[in-house]
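WARN no homologs supplied; continuing
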Amino acid sequence: MKRVPALLTVALLAAACGPLTPPASGPTVPLGQALTGQVSQPFGGTWAVEQKSLPAWLTVSPGSGTGRIGLTLTADRAQGTPTAADQRTLSGQVTVTWTEGTQSGKTTWTVTADQYTLTGRVVDAARVQGADVGGGAALRAQSQVGARGVIVKYRSAAAQAVALGRTAPAGTLSDAAQSTTRGTLARLNVPRGALDDLGGRRIRLETPDVEGALLALRSDPNVEYAVPNAILHAQALAAPLVPTDQYAGLQWAYKLLGYGAAWRDMEAGGYTRPVTVAVVDTGVRFDHPDLQGALYGPGEGALDVLTSPSNGDGDGPDTDPTDPNTPTRSSGSHGTHVTGIIAARWGSFAPIAGCPACSTSGVVGAAYKAPVKVLPIRVIDTAGDAEVADVVNAVRYAAGLEITLAGRTYKNPHPAQVINLSLGGDVDAKTAQPMCEAVADATRAGALVVVAAGNGYGTTPYYPAACEGAVAVGAVTLSGASAPVHAPYSNSYPQVMLSAPGGADINRAPTFFNGGKLNDAPYPDEIFSTDWDYVKDQPMYQSYAGTSQAAPQVSALAALLLSKGVTQGRDDTLARLTATATDLGARGRDDAFGYGMINAAAALGAPAVSDALGLRVQGSRGQAFQPALDALGRFTAYLPDDTFQVVGGRDRDGNGIYGETSEPRAERQAALGPANPQVDLGDLTPAP
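OK structure emitted
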């Protein structure tokens, strides 16, 4: 983002009062709406800025010195703006420790920075209450929507009285006018009992010939309007489908993606085409009760491609990709976790022997009733490592191509339409070439290869996600605002194509926006799914965060598109995913979000399950804000310098995000900063 030219900065000089003497505090330093400012104080000793005490939005340089204290203050307001965007001015303190001869102490300046202001109003679209429609096809269409006669409004009470068979007050209506009104009704052969006084010069007229009545009545100069007495219907929205499995309330990602509407759509049938999703990972725990019936097992195409003798199960490549126990293993099963996101079964199952505290319903997977099955392929060993050669074999095998392992040839009996790789690494393009060639082979075979973009907290492309033809998936997490935000660990680079919920890194910045609780305590914003306890050797459930958890969200939705028949192959499935994604961050495709976060409800054409009107505000740097709307839909947001996408829209899929693809929306862009400190967007009136 371009910074404001230096001429827009301000020099703010503290009063020169001679050498510092403890205790001391400098005057308040108001940056106003500038990005930078200076503070200066005569001094003869040594000094240093207490960097740890600075607010997150304020940078001070230099950090130390001798003699006169001269500081440059730089405000990054984005680091201090609350999600509610309701803080007009940021305030913080700069503390300098100093030593002069035998004296030492601290001096503190209070620094303030004014925010930039965005105002506007979100208003509902005007609804047409009635319209005068001409003849011909338009009239026939109007009369055929379902009507029980006609409603007529006359231009005067006298004309209404004549129509009802009463005597018009003397001098109020000419004889010719009265004759016209009586003649019109006579030609319609309407008996007097078929007319009802609706008040306000209106009459309800019962007739089976609605079209003829409209034509005749609209030709009467005494008639103000004539409209069909249309049949209205109760407008009940479909209810979102909410699973009742024990830990489903912790699976916030599904709600964020609109699955309450998508699963309701599934209840109506139509998801009939079998789809295979290959999960190329650590293997899986086939004995996890929440995955029963969701997997192709040993002898059905499942495969362990690891050839190294130290791979953890000690038996080389074979048809049993169970994620094995090892003597010292205590961590969970990555492949089991990824698989559960796609295909964990709904409902209860039998109690687990020897584990009275274990859940008997667990979690749910995105596939629900759709005939989606996971084909486990083990390529990651118990140390969490995968060799490039093994990934090559796994991808090719998943797509239905023959591979040879330890002298034996294998061919997948269930070629995968979707291949999920929640793995990758920081290798160069040349080293990654064999994997990219395997991705190309799988793509030519018709498979959609979905790959985690990487958790490197940077901009380095990870492979195989960055391979041409792969669908690199970044992660988003909850923000407390209507729109989610980019997860900081998720790598950003040009090959990132889509985003999906990956959760928050609770080791760095735990958040609890999802509202779920476990054991009566708020649960952090991670992705909850099936797992395995290797210490107790029993099934369990666990949460993780990463692009590994985002990728299977995309794989699951791709499989559902194919199962419903919305799409038929790799290319149109990818096109549908990108076209219906929710644009986040900067407008259009960007390196952090790709084309946006996938939207299951929009992609699958699910029914509306809500109809709320609201606002979302997104900055080009990926932040999201949620200013409050008053009773009239007005908002005032105090924001940092940035370019913002502001959407007033309706939420039809119940995910709390307003104005997504296929939802009514009005979008504006506003650039705020020192040169443009206040913007009024006017009215945002959502339209389909």
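The chain has four domains: 6-114, 146-230, 271-579, 610-684.
OK
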